[in-house]
């Protein structure tokens, strides 16, 4: 794909995302319909669903041959990486959305034949859109971001998902203890933004494709490494324990993971 086409797609996606943000902000002023999915800690609202439908309609109108993987199920069944695959998380951090009306993101990613091309993480309440990909670089709104420093574990803050912390999985508490400290934001998208801007140096969580699709593209563009928790390559269509980190932090954490069960 030539750069001109890429820039045109990028411009369109940003426009949809701004409209999606307005949709979410408007719907937030009305009463939410909140339902449980797998548990009382796993919520979905009418806004998640309406925003996913909105984004899928925009994508399908613009690029009808695309396939869309959406968290709330309004997209397509996808079992191979071929072609244009868009991955949509209409509200990432739904618990934060419901309880805090803050700290949530809209995320979109475009993969072509399995390669990450464009990624978007929109911090709705701060009106900060992180966007880009390997051919464009990474931007916070209109400002290009530099690579974050390649900080070692001992010198930076790490983020672990609450379930991993609470249940002390994979010996991660020791890794956390060897860092400068732990921060937990409750939205994979917001954690990714903190990685992109160098505010944290590692994020580990159980994630599904829509949770990490955009962050993987943006993070790798800025020299961060994304892998499974044991350092293996991520399959973009599978769920699992994911680590996003600076190269040095990953090097420091991998030997700690899994020690003592
Ligand atoms: P979500 O809000 O889009 O569901 C913290 O909960 C982070 O983990 C959020 O980014 C959330 O995304 C994601 N997540 C993935 N699976 C989850 C689950 N089963 N329950 C709650 N959050 C989940
Ligand atoms: Ca969810
Ligand atoms: Ca999510
Ligand atoms: Ca979601």
From TrEMBL:
Keywords: Hydrolase, Magnesium, Metal-binding. The keyword Magnesium applies. Pfam families: Inositol_P. Mg(2+) binds at residues 71, 89, 91-92, 211. InterPro entries: Inositol_monoP_metal-BS, Inositol_monophosphatase-like. GO terms for molecular function: inositol monophosphate 1-phosphatase activity; metal ion binding. CDD domains: IMPase_like. GO terms for biological process: inositol metabolic process; signal transduction. The keyword Oxidoreductase does not apply. PANTHER family: INOSITOL MONOPHOSPHATASE, INOSITOL-1-MONOPHOSPHATASE-RELATED. This is Inositol monophosphatase family protein. It comes from Secundilactobacillus kimchicus JCM 15530.
């Amino acid at each position: 794909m030539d750069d001109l086409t890429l820039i045109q797609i990028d411009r369109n996606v940003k426009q949809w995302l701004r409209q999606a943000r307005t949709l979410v902000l408007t719907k937030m002023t009305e009463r939410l319909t909140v339902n449980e999915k797998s548990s009382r800690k796993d919520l979905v609202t009418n806004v998640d669903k309406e925003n996913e439908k909105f984004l899928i309609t925009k994508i399908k109108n613009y690029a009808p041959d695309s396939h869309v993987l959406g968290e709330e199920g309004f997209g397509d069944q996808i079992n191979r990486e071929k072609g244009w695959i868009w991955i949509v998380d209409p509200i990432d951090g739904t618990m934060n959305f419901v309880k805090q009306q803050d700290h949530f993101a809209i995320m979109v990613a475009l993969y072509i034949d399995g390669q990450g091309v464009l990624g978007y993480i929109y911090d709705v309440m701060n009106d900060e859109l992180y966007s880009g990909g390997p051919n464009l670089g990474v931007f916070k709104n209109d400002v290009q971001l530099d690579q974050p420093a390649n900080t070692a574990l001992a010198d930076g803050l790490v983020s672990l998902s609450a379930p991993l912390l609470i249940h002390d999985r994979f010996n991660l508490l020791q890794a956390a203890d060897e860092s400068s400290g732990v921060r937990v934001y409750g939205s994979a998208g917001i954690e990714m933004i903190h990685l992109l801007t160098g505010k944290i140096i590692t994020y580990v969580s159980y994630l599904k494709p829509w949770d990490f699709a955009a962050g993987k593209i943006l993070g790798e563009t800025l020299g961060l490494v994304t892998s499974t928790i044991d350092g293996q390559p991520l399959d973009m269509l599978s769920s699992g324990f994911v680590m996003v980190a600076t190269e040095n932090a990953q090097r420091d954490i991998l030997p700690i993971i899994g020690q003592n069960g």
